[in-house]
Design goal:
The chain is 48% helix and 15% strand. The termini are far apart. The protein has two domains: 6-279, NAD(P)-binding Rossmann-like Domain (Rossmann fold, 3-Layer(aba) Sandwich), CATH 3.40.50.720; 283-494, N-(1-d-carboxylethyl)-l-norvaline Dehydrogenase, domain 2. The mean pLDDT is 96. Helix 12 (282-305) runs antiparallel to helix 14 (318-332) and helix 12 crosses helix 17 (370-389). The strands form three sheets. Strands 5-2-1-6-7-8-10-11 form an eight-stranded mixed beta sheet, with helices on both faces. It is built from 23 helices and 14 strands.
Length: 497
């Protein structure tokens, strides 16, 4: 079967939207599954729905990468968006044509090509997702390197070349999963300007003419399809061989922090896609952490003790789903600063996302590092709910009891892999967390329920405070943990409904 390219796609009879030629308006650092299922998808839809008429030039952030595969397919690849939407199963296919080519800047010709794009009159945006470790200042990088090894170093080289050519400033959209990603990237670029002793005029250009945007990305991207039988079936249906098939969930939102004029400049609003420009992404980060991540951490530990193994099965159970939804809608949403309808819609989408028929998301994988996760994701909602209402939130309180139960249920041993416990149904599981936290639970494995709860709540290394000072919390958790031990976690969750 022939490999996907424009001629092969045309011969296959594909009827979807395709744009073969357009100006290269985006320089994108990162060519992995996530950006191709997220950023390149949004720009592709913008070409179709808003007549944006633009292409993205991809750049490998590190030497081994996908440049050859992408160029062999002329930038084309097949994207499947799969999941549930409004309760209905969705499996959408789209061939993405918003990518023109991919450069490997560690090869001289491609480094020069990157610098040619840098001074292009068509270029408007830089996009990046170079992982959390990508936005770092490495003083070993030099202006004369071809290329600088760090991503901020490469970006400084690109912007300096553009400034020297007298070209307008760019909009930089950072997608790395760190707080204030755009601000942190600008900070690194300024460090290189100072280190390399570049002109004050260039510094003014970077800080005044260029717009560094912090953004918040939200789409689960499983990426490649692993099952060779499914790949063979899809390729038979498509009529071509695709080395770059990508898979993402249906839900997606890209919150972009920027000035008012940016919304009119970007094509997303005209295309009707979920990429709003907002004055501050912080509330949206809080929304994601408290609702999406907080839901996971809030229900999975008890659900696992109740005998569930994957998230989707939890959503099929009235008790576990009801517990999660009550926690989200009655206890977490009232503590958040955004429009209530926006929060309710986001929370409702969580149920569809967790009920994705195409993803087997294991509860044990979510359980990793649950101590720090409960502190970061659930404790703020718990404390703010109490501050606002003067009473304990029933589901979040039971969630804390389930957290203790998960790390203390019939402890078998402490080994190099973690803390081995036993589920009520008889199988063992290994808790993974910070070593000091696992050592703590092992040291308290013979405690009575009241003694264990007291020891956990007064552990300031875990929580940064003494939680026994929260009125009624200690007694409520003792009752919850007793109920979990005696009647099971599902009965404990049911008691909150």
């Amino acid at each position: 079967m022939e490999k996907l390219n424009y001629a092969v796609l045309k011969a296959s009879g594909y009827q979807g939207y395709i744009l073969e030629k357009a100006p290269e308006k985006v320089l994108q650092f990162g060519e992995g599954n996530f950006l191709r299922a997220f950023v390149n998808y949004w720009f592709d839809v913008s070409n179709e729905k808003a007549g944006w008429n633009g292409k993205c030039v991809l750049v490998q952030p590190i030497a081994p990468g996908l440049a050859k595969l992408i160029n062999d397919q002329e930038g084309l690849y097949t994207l499947y968006l799969r999941g549930r939407e409004n309760g209905e199963k969705v499996d959408r296919k789209r061939v993405i044509s918003s990518v023109s080519r991919c450069l490997n800047p560690y090869e001289k010709a491609d480094f020069d090509a990157m610098m040619e794009v840098a001074v292009s009159d068509d270029l408007e945006y830089v996009v990046s997702n170079t992982t959390e470790a990508g936005i770092v200042y490495d003083p070993a990088c030099q202006l004369a390197d071809e290329p600088a090894s760090s991503f901020p170093g490469k970006l400084t080289q690109v912007l300096y070349k553009r400034w020297q050519a007298g070209k307008p400033g760019l909009v930089i959209l950072s997608c790395e999963l760190i707080d204030n990603n755009g601000k942190e990237l600008l900070k690194c670029v300024n460090q290189y300007i100072d280190q390399w002793k570049l002109e004050e005029g260039f510094k003014a250009y970077v800080n005044n003419d260029c717009t560094f945007c912090s953004t918040l990305v939200d789409r689960i991207v499983p990426g490649r399809i692993r099952d060779p039988e499914e790949v063979a079936r899809l390729e038979a249906e498509n009529g071509y061989h695709d080395e770059l098939i990508d898979v993402g969930e249906v839900f997606g939102v890209w919150n972009i922090e920027g000035p008012d004029w940016l919304e009119a400049k970007l094509p997303f609003k005209a295309a009707g896609v979920n990429c709003p420009v907002v004055p501050d992404v912080t509330p949206y980060k809080k929304r994601k952490v408290r609702i999406l991540n907080g839901a996971h951490t809030g229900f999975v530990l008890g659900a696992y003790l109740a005998g569930f193994d994957i998230v989707r099965d939890c959503m099929e159970d009235d008790t576990v789903r009801g517990f999660m939804n009550k926690m989200l809608h009655e206890e977490i949403i009232p503590t958040l600063p955004l429009d209530k309808k926006d929060l309710e819609d986001f929370a409702s989408a969580v149920q569809d996302r967790f009920n994705n028929p195409f993803v087997n998301h294991e509860l044990m994988s979510i359980s990793l590092n649950s101590t720090s996760k409960w502190r970061a994701r659930n404790m703020p909602s718990f404390l703010e709910y109490i501050e606002k209402t003067g009473k304990l939130p029933a589901c979040l309180t039971m969630s804390f009891a389930a957290y203790i139960a998960f790390f203390s249920n019939d402890i078998q041993e402490r080994n190099e892999k973690g803390l081995v416990c036993k589920r009520p149904k008889g199988d063992t599981y290994t808790c993974s967390d910070d070593g000091w936290a696992l050592d703590f639970y092992y040291a308290h494995k013979d405690d009575s329920i009241p003694d264990l709860v007291h020891a956990v709540m007064t552990n300031q290394q875990m929580w940064g405070q003494d939680l026994t000072q929260v009125p009624g919390f200690e007694d409520a958790v003792v009752k919850g943990l007793t109920l979990i031990r005696e009647q099971g976690a599902k009965a404990a969750y049911a008691s909150c409904l």
